[in-house]
Amino acid sequence: MTNVIWEPEKTTADDTTLLERIAAMSFAGREPFAPPLMEMLGAISQTLLNAPLARRAPQYVALGYWLRPAAIKRMRDQLLIRAQKGSFLLTPRGIALHLPPSNVDTIFVYSWSLSVLAGNANVVRLAATLSSDVQWLVGLVAKIVEEYGEAERQLFCSYPYGGEFEWSVSRHCDLRMIWGGDAKVDAVSRTPIRPDGLSIGFPDRKSLAMICVASYAASTEEQRDELAARLYNDIYWFDQMGCSSPRVIVWVGERLKALSIDLQGRLIKVIRAKNYSVETGVAMGKFSLANDLLAEAHADRIRPVSNELCLVEVVNAGECLERTHGGGFLGEVFLSDITEVASFVTRKVQTVTHFGFDVDQLNRLASSIMSRGGYRIVPIGQALQFDADWDGVALFTHMTRRIIIRAE
To answer: What residue ranges of the chain are covered by domains with CATH 3.40.309.10?
Structure first.
């Protein structure tokens, strides 16, 4: 495989050239939240929100809104308030290496953007083969980076995993962000970075959605339609392959299947309105998995609603979370109390989205799972919203260093 650099056009580079580019970034950091860096991210936001592609790629719209100048300023204020509780100077960590996943095409921008705000020089290692949409996104970001004079500090490239070259790249890095499955995190972590560097892995995670039966029963038609639309976004934006996309719906309260069927019908309407579809092979794979769960006594009943939605009434929600498929495959379980979810929450569970619960109930939920798993409890519709705290890690804190200052 040939090394590639986006600058902003896609060009090839030999090992020596790429390593020299990375080595030159060692002292290229900037002051955290430097105004030119914030302006650069604002320019990316504006371009994304005005792009015709965004009309058919809602994840790009979400990214554009996340990078809006007002949103970045609000995040800056919150992070600085959190960081400035002591006598120290906040500085960048150094060179950050980002290894994004292939199944969520905007993660590389979120990870990179937050590190940019921390003042780091950044190397983003992308897959050798990218979809046309992702190539467009990489080119857009690289172009604006060049326009703002940041190309020497921000490098978007691809190179082979494994071997001596990856070792050489990693040894230059002060921070490594590994986004992907367990196997990827395990394999990459075997390659050391700088002795004083920090490597953070974001391995396989599974997520679920919780709905209060009483609240749904009391909801208006409009509220139910809105919930279905938000649930659609959480499930289908990345074909249900994102770690935070729900795989199981948990109904808490009286077992009223009529409400489940009601939500199912509304979700189907949204799916059709959005013109979402899956290949026949995907639909067959979902049906096969559903029958496996049924045959192994992990499920009671299958509801193959359409090629795009398969619901399985499960008795073992944990097994359903582990054996996920994507493309609209959902387990469904009824619990009498919100804390019962702890019986199948493990360290693999990342996001719990919710509808119809009050703060006290959510606090009870958090207390019940705190020693087991679960890192985010957010409303349905916010599963895929990126945050500076992810998987229980305060990202910005780890992306910066502190120089302690004490006077006599």
So the answer is: 206-379
